[in-house]
Amino acid sequence: MIAEPDGPEDRLRRFATIWSRAVFPVTSTSSTRLEFEEQLLPLARRLSEALLARAFDADAGRAVGAALVDAHCTDPEALSRTLDCVDAYLVLYCGGDGDQEDLRARSARLQHAMAAGFAQALRERTLAEQEAIAQAALRAQGVVAQALHATEARFRAVFEGAAIGIGMADLDGNILQVNGALLRMFGVSEQAMRTRNVREWTHPDDAPQTWRLYDELVRGEREHYHVEKAFYRPDGTVLWTNLTVSLLRDADGSPQYQLALMEDTTERRLLNLRLRYEATHDALTGLPNRTFFFERLEKALGAGKGQRFGLCYLDLDGFKTINDSLGHAAGDRLLVEVADRLQSCATAPGEMVARLGGDEFVALTTGPDTQREVDELAARIMNALLAPISVDGRELTVRGSIGIVEGPAGERSPAEVLRSADITMYRAKSAGGNRFELADPEADARAITRHGLTTALPTALERGEFFIEYQPLVHLGDGSVRGAEALVRWLHPQHGVLGPDRFIPLAEHTGLIVPLGRWVLEQSVRQAREWRELHGGVEAVGPLRINVNLSPCQLTHPGLVQDTVDILERAGVEPDALCLEVTESALIGADDDLLKPLRRLAEMGVDIALDDFGTGYSNLANLRRLPVSILKLDRSFTQSMQQFPADPVDLKIVEGIVSLAHSLDLAVTVEGVETGAQAEQLRILGCDTAQGWYYARPGPPERLHELALVDAAG
What is the pLDDT of residues 662-680, one digit of tens each? Predict the structure, then answer.
């Protein structure tokens, strides 16, 4: 079975077929229906071209209306069926992929033009017939009188039966004739309508050019015009119409009458206004929404010289807790009450409040002095939230964090302003909330950089932008290199080499720390194997051990133990070559479930080091339950030892920690050793190993190999 073609010409032919079937039964013609369809096809094509033309031209519609009269479609039912057909099918079959609302409006205007062209042609035909009758009056007076009567009857039928309002007036504006549709639209009697003058129908919403076009038409300088116009009804309501006014000339071409065609668009306009309101206002609170706010903000930022703006970006503190505990219905009622309070804070000219979504609101103020006004607006908002809000019998205390951006118009885009306000709001929230902060360009830049690094982290690992540097661990007794700590770096394409303090917290926050930590462990263990192979023939050098940091997120990852085992087995490295460093703060108050993976690793032979010891305020008695074999003393305890004499209190503290550690069979490693005097003092105190710039800065693995060989040779 072959599919029926459905190109533009096929759809045009289908429209002509429907049109011919509708009109042919009421057409006085000797043609067959198929022949009549061929007559309508070029008229359908002209309507299609006018519908899709770049600039609308009503002449096409008038020409088609006149052509109907020429094709003997003079029966009033023929025009009525034609208009119904065009209204129902022209856009459907000939509209293509264009804007349907615009196409429907054009179709309506074409119908008005067709009716005007039909009426004009019918009237001209009537006048022509009347002239012919006058010339042949002596021969066929009776026949002419009958034809004239029939023609006038047809015109009257079209005039009265039209679905659109039609009215005729003289050039002075005196109304001469109106049809029933027009009377129903205005809700008046024909007698009352005839007492009116066209020039009385002014309305405050009239477009500036409306009455200029009217004057040009009655002077004969314009043949027609089309406008959207409002009229007052006698009951005070407003009637909105699509109005087409045409000039009718006499046989000599002199202006004689004006003909108005009106389509009632009141309901359509009200619907459009309702849709516009719903599209620009929040359904829950009734406040302007994000779309409307951006329109106002863009307008404020585009204001002239000397104008400024101030914006308050509000986020409620702890709203998620209310939603989770009381339910979303209670949360919605809370938001409605907050919206009402915020609305009462922004009542001055140039101020507005909008809801961006969720529990985020914005308040905007504009004018020449917003530096003072925006602070006052923020203070009013904070005060408005002080009183508790009653929801379901509960008194809820609501607080908010506000980010304020203020500045001159014309310097930033709406997106830039809102981003700055958002960043500032989160700065206020991170400072404890229930406060407002002013935007700081430097803080914005740092936040934007952090965001950029966060979004770049996943692909950075895939692109191989991370590398590892190694800092030696030196035995304080004999000065030999016993191993190294692996320190990951990021070679960022724009920012250069970044230390772990710049990206590890971001990796923790996004969860990328798990694959990144696994990669660091794989690379470090592989490097440990290479070191052991290189140093295998040097007796003075013991087996080098690699220290790798574990983040709190990695500690809770269920695959930690298995991943570590797999990495060691693939590399062919014994567990005693690996030391995992865990910060003291990560293990404060740790339960058995958290310690279980570390105990399993320790039982395998992996060393566990308690990093940054002394900064977490942990109970020293807890050391006996932790599966650690090494304490890494934080550098804050040994900084005073860089100078002579050292602080006796620090000496006593370090001495006590070392004594306690050794009594528990724990080795002590010291971080941040920067001078020989400091190293000697730590050796005397009994510390086992140390690391720091005194020995070597973090560097490539080859440097550690060289240091180890030097120590062995020495």
Answer: 988 999 999 989 888 888 8
Q: How far is residue 575's CA from residue 604's CA, in Å, rounded to a whole number?
A: 7
Query: With a threshold of 0.85, does the pTM exceed it?
Result: no
- 667 touches 629 (CB < 8 A): yes
For 280-439, CATH number? 3.30.70.270
Q: Per DSSP, what are the bridge partners of residue 630?
A: 609, 667
| Cα–Cα distance for residue pair 549/551, rounded to 1 Å | 7
Rounded Cα–Cα distance for residues 471 and 488 (Å): 11
Tokens of 652: 């006593």
Q: What residue spans define the domains of the chain?
A: 8-132, 164-270, 280-439, 455-703
- Interatomic CA distance for residues 143 and 147, integer angstroms: 6
What is the model's pLDDT at position 255?
A: 92
- The strand ranges marked E within 188-339 are 224-232, 238-249, 255-264, 308-317
Q: Name, in order, each residue with C-beta under 8 angstroms of 143's C-beta and a sequence gap of 6 or more.
A: none
Backbone angles phi, psi at 333, to 5 degrees: -65, -35
Tokens of 230: 């409002």
Name the residue among 117, 114, 126, 132 with its Cα closest to residue 155.
126
Query: 455-703: which CATH architecture?
Result: Alpha-Beta Barrel (3.20)
**Are 316 and 397 in contact, with CB atoms under 8 Å apart?**
no
Q: Which residues does 247 contact at the CB level (< 8 Å), separation at least 6?
A: 217, 218, 220, 222, 223, 224, 255, 257, 258, 259
Give the residue-averaged pLDDT of 469-498: 90
Flag whether pLDDT at 640 surpasses 80: no
List of residues 6+ apart from 564 with CB closer than 8 A: 521, 578, 580, 601, 606
Note the pLDDT tens digit of each residue in 156-170.
666 666 778 888 999
Longest dimension (CA), the chain: 145
Q: What φ, ψ does residue 121 adopt, rounded to 5°?
A: -65, -40
* List of residues 6+ apart from 5 with CB closer than 8 A: none
For domain 164-270, give the fold.
Answer: Beta-Lactamase (3.30.450)
pLDDT bracket for residue 547 (50, 70, 90) = very high
